[in-house]
Design a protein that fits this description.
291 residues; mainly alpha; 13 helices; 79% helix; globular
Length: 291
């Protein structure tokens, strides 16, 4: 990161590209604005939980785009990113409540043992009731999520004031390289420690790097994928492992489940999570050897 900022600051006449509709900075600004617009629209969805899910995805993509201009977009970029992060975190309770229902639904569809299905069915019913309570509370405090949508409108209006003209094609590609490096470091740390938060951090960083590649592709600056980081099967396996981690998290704190069902779910999910992570590690080792 530091080398990229130094390069652009040291010789602006050589690294800056003319601002205009075709410049990478203007194109990335338009992309980021589109994602904030998508989040604004999603929060008006009649399906509260689906709308929150889509809005959070769009906000993450907007933040990933802003991160490509790290140190170059001016002090306002950091402020805008912090506000977007705070808004997304404020929606996380709604999202987690809905995600838990989705996880239990997926586990139910795959489960064949009747006794386990009974536990999962009770857990799903409890999760649906908890989701309804969380949703009702959110609408009561912020009807129609209007306050959040108003904030997004402010963020959208602030975007053009950032120093988009300072972004270059080379600098943006270096930004993706920075993300790749962070992803590799997070991957190594997660595999070494086995800590849930480290695994979650690895998944977040891999997702951000993938979102940045997609953003650059959409503005006409494609970047080759790092196969060992963005293999589709690995991404899917990480998602399934995250399902199990989310379920276990809800068995430990503020759980909607009975004590008996919490114990049964932990006994099922903990070994399944260990197996899932071992499979991911083995697949990565095979992919690295093939490269």
């Amino acid at each position: 990161m530091g080398s990229r900022r130094a390069m652009d600051k040291a010789s602006p006449s050589r690294t800056q590209e003319p601002a205009g509709p075709a410049s990478p900075g203007a194109a990335l600004c338009a992309y980021t604005r589109g994602e904030i617009d998508a989040a604004h629209e999603a929060l008006a969805d009649p399906d509260l939980h689906e709308g929150v899910h889509l809005a959070r995805k769009a906000i993450r993509r907007a933040r990933a785009a802003l991160a490509l201009g790290d140190g170059l977009l001016g002090p306002g970029a950091g402020l805008l990113d912090r506000e977007l992060r705070a808004l997304n975190r404020g929606l996380s309770t709604l999202r987690d409540a809905h995600a838990l229902v989705e996880v239990l639904d997926r586990l139910l569809k795959r489960e064949r043992k009747d006794d386990v299905r009974q536990v999962l069915t009770r857990a799903c019913e409890a999760a649906v009731a908890a989701r309804a309570r969380v949703g009702a509370a959110a609408i009561q405090t912020d009807p129609g999520l209007g306050a959040r949508r108003a904030l997004l409108a402010v963020f959208r209006a602030a975007l053009p004031a950032l120093d988009w003209h300072r972004l270059t094609s080379a600098g943006l590609r270096m930004g993706v390289a920075d993300s790749d490096l962070r992803t590799r470091e997070a991957q190594a740390r997660a595999r070494h420690s086995g800590d849930d938060e480290d695994w979650h951090r690895w998944r977040r960083r891999a997702r951000r790097a993938s979102q940045q590649r997609r953003a650059l592709e959409l503005i006409g600056l494609p970047v080759a994928a790092a196969s060992e980081l963005f293999d589709k099967r690995t991404a899917e396996q990480l998602g399934r492992a995250q399902d199990l981690a989310l379920l276990l998290d809800h068995c430990r704190r503020d759980s909607p489940f009975s004590k008996q069902d919490r114990q049964a779910l932990r006994e099922r999910a903990e070994p399944a999570l260990r197996r899932a992570r071992r499979r991911i590690a083995r697949n990565l080792d095979v992919a690295c050897q093939a490269d």
